[in-house]
Amino acid sequence: MDQHSGMRTVAFLLVVLLAARARGADDCPFAISEFDKIDGAINDAPTCAAGAKVFRACLVGASSDVARGGAVQERCERDFLKRLPRARLRAYNSALDACARKYARMEGSMYQSAAAVCAADVAERYSRESPRR
After folding, report:
1. What is the dihedral of CA 108, 68, 49, 106, to 10 degrees?
2. Alpha helix locations (H) across the chain?
3. Where exactly are the structural domains of the chain?
4. What's the whole-model pTM score?
5. Is-contact 44 94, C-beta < 8 A?
6. For the segment 78-115, what is each residue's pLDDT rounded down to a tens digit?
7. DSSP annotation of 131
8. 61 near 21, Cβ under 8 Å?
9. Residues 69, 127: Cα–Cα separation, whole Å
């Protein structure tokens, strides 16, 4: 990545994360530091989309988002993972790996947050696209 594209990526991420943070300050139903409550709300959400909504509302743009994103993945995977055909499972895992690779060489906790958001989005998409029982 050249210096200009790296700076554009950083600027884009900052805008996205600051917008999410500003939104989260008003929309998160918990104090941003109440990680157990946020994780519980994601896990207990009636749908994957509801859990993902809590996650997005409570984003902080830092490494603490990694665990919240993992909670979204777990919640969403309950909807589809056991019924996912082998080829789709490979595609799902490949998409998750792509999220990790995209930010692997970036320094800073905001990139860990971005990778977590990416993976949560993948899980939410697969949940939405999977046929219901």
Report:
1. 20
2. 3-27, 35-44, 48-57, 65-80, 86-103, 109-129
3. 3-129
4. 0.79
5. no
6. 999 999 999 999 999 999 999 999 999 998 999 999 99
7. P
8. yes
9. 15
